[in-house]
Specification:
By secondary structure, the protein is mainly α. The protein has a domain of 83 residues: Tetratricopeptide repeat domain (Serine Threonine Protein Phosphatase 5, Tetratricopeptide repeat, Alpha Horseshoe). The protein is built from 8 helices and no strands. The longest helix is centred in the N-terminal third of the chain and has 34 residues. It is rod-shaped.
Length: 212
């Protein structure tokens, strides 16, 4: 009797341990299943969203191309244009008139005055070629610049080019016959053996034949 009682108790303990072990294994299995990645992983979702964006771009491009075709201006000639205007391809383009036009400069006495000042700076330092260039620039912006003409005459004298100096002294006297430098201009012309006024150009017209 005692043996049977002990055997019964031992059997119940073993059964209870088996049941507890089964429950534990079931919990572990459920936990393992929960930790497995789902079918919709981030990589898969990213690939799907990228494909959707590519499809959207393709649709937008197609729509834009269709819109541009609708708004495009047709520049092709009419159907019978070549037959109705056979010489339209032989039109002579207008001549390039710009090649015969000299460069024009706006009248700017302020700019001319600045060129005169820079020319005087070089002249005082005996850099006569540099001074000459600035006085010539002054005449571009102010054609009747008396000071520039007088200084040009002096520069040409310093550079031993008296023939080029004479017309500038004469031009100064034409612009300012009683100017502050008129006496110096007359002295320079006298020194160079030239008149105060340039010689008038002889007429090139042929004299008429009185016998006709």
């Amino acid at each position: 009797m005692l043996f049977r009682s002990l055997s019964g108790r031992g059997g119940r303990k073993i059964g209870h341990m088996r049941w507890s072990l089964a429950v534990l294994l079931l919990c572990l299995a459920s936990f393992a299943v929960a930790q497995q990645p789902s079918d919709t992983s981030p990589d898969t979702s990213q690939d799907t969203s990228k494909a959707d964006r590519e499809k959207a771009k393709a649709r937008d491009a197609e729509a834009g191309e269709s819109s541009s075709r609708e708004t495009r201006i047709d520049l092709s000639p009419p159907k019978d244009d070549a037959k109705d205007h056979p010489n339209s391809g032989n039109v002579i383009p207008p001549p390039d008139v710009a090649s015969d036009v000299q460069e024009l400069h706006q009248w700017n006495p302020y700019r001319a005055g600045k060129d005169d000042e820079v020319g005087d700076y070089y002249f005082k330092r005996k850099n006569y070629k540099a001074a000459l260039a600035r006085y010539q620039d002054a005449l571009i912006y102010k054609e009747n610049d008396a000071i520039a003409n007088f200084r040009l005459g002096e520069c040409y004298e310093k550079l031993e080019q008296p023939a080029d100096a004479i017309p500038h002294y004469q031009e100064y006297l034409r612009i300012l016959p009683q100017g502050p430098l008129s006496k110096d201009a007359r002295k320079a012309l006298k020194r160079l053996g030239a008149p105060e006024k340039p010689a008038e150009k002889a007429s090139t017209s042929q004299p008429s034949d009185p016998s006709q």
